[in-house]
Amino acid sequence: MGFFVGRGRKARRCYGFDEIALVPGEITINPNEVDITWELKEKKYEIPIIAAAMDGVVDTKFAITMGKLGGLAVLNLEGIQTRYEEPSEIFEEIARTSAENVTQLLQEIYQEEIKEYLISKRIEEIKSEGTPAIVSSIPQRAEKFGFIAQEAGADIFVIQSTVTTVRHYSMEYKVLNFEKFCKNVNIPVIVGNCVTYKQALALMETGIDALLVGIGPGAACTTRGVLGIGVPQVTATVDCSAAREIYFKKTNRYVAIITDGGMSSGGDICKAFACGADAVMVGSAFAKAKEAPGRGYHWGMATPHANLPRGTRIFVGTTGSLEQILYGPADIDDGSQNLIGALKTSMGNVGARNIREMQLTEIIVAPEIKTEGKIFQKVQRVGMGK
User: Fold this and answer.
1) 116, 349 contact by CB (below 8 A)
2) Tally of domains within the chain
3) What CATH number is associated with residue 102?
4) Is the pTM above the cut of 0.85?
5) How far is CA 201 from CA 161, 246, 248, 250, in A?
6) Could you say which DSSP state residue 354 is in?
7) What residues are annotated to the active site?
8) What whole-number distance in Å separates Cα of residue 203 and Cα of residue 201?
């Protein structure tokens, strides 16, 4: 299946969130009575939304707040939090720097060595408030940092790179054996990122507990522009979810699918679940929260050419508290607040009692769904934020 893009060369048509819509159900349910919990390695979590491992989004205070609100927040073990004893001083320095000079400053900031004692310290700070500690690293540091994190009491370990495969070759550094790593740690392991059926299945077979889906869809991620690599999130989520179902039938072991990036509104998040996600990972919406450490600061983009580690992107501006972004009430009309309310209402309207039923929602291709008949919205800028 596909279209010819030239002589002898076919390309498959893939879809993003703006090109589809969800069909209302034959029954409807009171949104207050739907179940949005999800499970990871037999542990249940209240809300299926995770804050991305970005330095401008998650510090220990943000992780604690997110945990108390029922969600999860991933702390980047290769960022500012583990390089500096007082990260707030670094954010203040960034704030004083002009936009023209910020990329150079960031390059200098990330030259500081990662301090292993700070890994344990940050995890202990989060755990001291009775909230779950979720931390991440790239594959090259996962073996070392994973065991430090486990010893410090981390609840979940995330291994994340731009493109993650089981078969990775390098003469420069030791390649991580995912199967061996998963057998040797006692906490759930989330791995990403991936966008294809075959690779999703291969990663699941190594023993991981959840898979991050998405290459380059984030609001500030430049992978698609710089490297030309990526698959639109609707197709990527559907394909990886199909791998999950096949793997579950073969092994009776369920591996959660986490759609990572590309969701700027509650509607996008609802569509991700309809495509098969068990949870979603969001960055840009939380970067604007009052609790985000990088709110309102100037940052450069973390591209492969900027010599900055993954997770260093930060946005400008503040739009409400973390609680308001998750639970409302919304004071802007672009769908970036009250995400939980949006999910519950959508599930009620499609007749889904839980996330698994939401994954069975009928989907239609509807590229004009957001603009059809919206002349007054365009003129008055209703539904587009302020």
Assistant:
1) no
2) 1
3) 3.20.20.70
4) yes
5) 17, 8, 10, 11
6) B
7) 221, 313
8) 5
